[in-house]
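2024-03-11 09:14:02 DEBUG pipeline.ingest accepted 1 chain
2024-03-11 09:14:02 DEBUG pipeline.ingest length=411
2024-03-11 09:14:03 DEBUG pipeline.predict start
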Amino acid sequence: MAHEEIVDRYSRFARTAMTGRPGHDPASADDASFEEGCFGAAGYDDTAALPDGALRASLGCGNPVAVADLHEGDVVLDLGSGGGIDVLLSARRVGPTGKVYGLDASPDMLSLARDNAAQAGVTNTEFLHGTIEHVPLPGRTVDVVISNCVINLSDDKAGTLAEAFRVLRPGGRFGVSDVVTDDSVPDQDLRRRTETRIGCTAGSLTVGEYRTLLLDAGFTGITITPTADHGDGVHSAIVKAVKPSVAPGFEIRPMRAEDADQVLSVYQLGLDTGHASFETTAPSWETFSSARLGNLRYVVADTRTDQVVAWVAASRVSARPVYAGVVEHSIYVHPGYGSRGLGRALLDAFVAASEDAGIWTIQSGVFPENTASLALHRAAGFRVLGTRERVGRHHGVWRDVLMIERRSPAV
């Protein structure tokens, strides 16, 4: 279903709700299955004092507010806010010092939501017209992103998740209700019929696809928990993740091709210390990139200038399937940005992302003289396995290497 058709469909729901009738699509589910599946207001247990219009226009597949871990003073963004039920519930949680943005592409839904907010006497909300693929907010604006059965409607789910990551502040939380599919569903026709029946018109992501897109966007700490079974491998689910934390004024995000010159510059500065690697000259970007995995590569960027001041990346140790969960990593921090905790934050984010990706062992080699790197890795749960003596020459001098490793307790 095209974007315009989806907007028209939900605008009709809004107009229906304004007449005093329930706003859900009778073609998607009958009243009994709508409530049994925890769709709409049936998914909530805290709707007291909410306007009837917000309840009638509720079309979600769960209650993201119940699991979003909202705090007093938080700034929240609801993607696809509809009649405003999650915005109003969030506004209660964050209190007068917080704020909740509701974003919707339907002018009729926005009009209904604004009326519902006025009826509820809620003043710490703002409703924005726009799409979830192009959020009309600056980067690092909100503390929490929520959504209720809307991301599955997008035909650019990767772009939507990237936008959620962009608008979140470091340490921000992502907590949504959505429709997901089992990774292995033998009958795709049955799956599509079930998705259509429950209103998932653009097709849902599998659990594995959702996890991969969240990782690609930069999220870590990913959990996907089914909450209702709609049959044929299709589920409602709670999807949670976080944007990595880091010191104020910086952001941890996925490495981009346009970061090439800055990444290699930081690499060279590290090599110039004489204690980072046997290499003495940073390679070309093509050589650097081809030797490393396409994912599990991140940078720390200065948010004022977008200057890359640290990076981490992983390489596969072997093509053999038995080593699929074993990687070797490198981490470099600009010498001018030490003592700010950037290396530790970056390494913690990398470890979390590697576990989300199913990596069970991270290994590397460190010169014994690189005491700062050894301390950093020990603090992040790495252990020294032993010493490879006189393993290679560096500037004409034979040098030892300490082999370090982190075994995941979770994977």
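2024-03-11 09:14:41 DEBUG pipeline.report The longest strand covers residues 168-181.
2024-03-11 09:14:41 DEBUG pipeline.predict end
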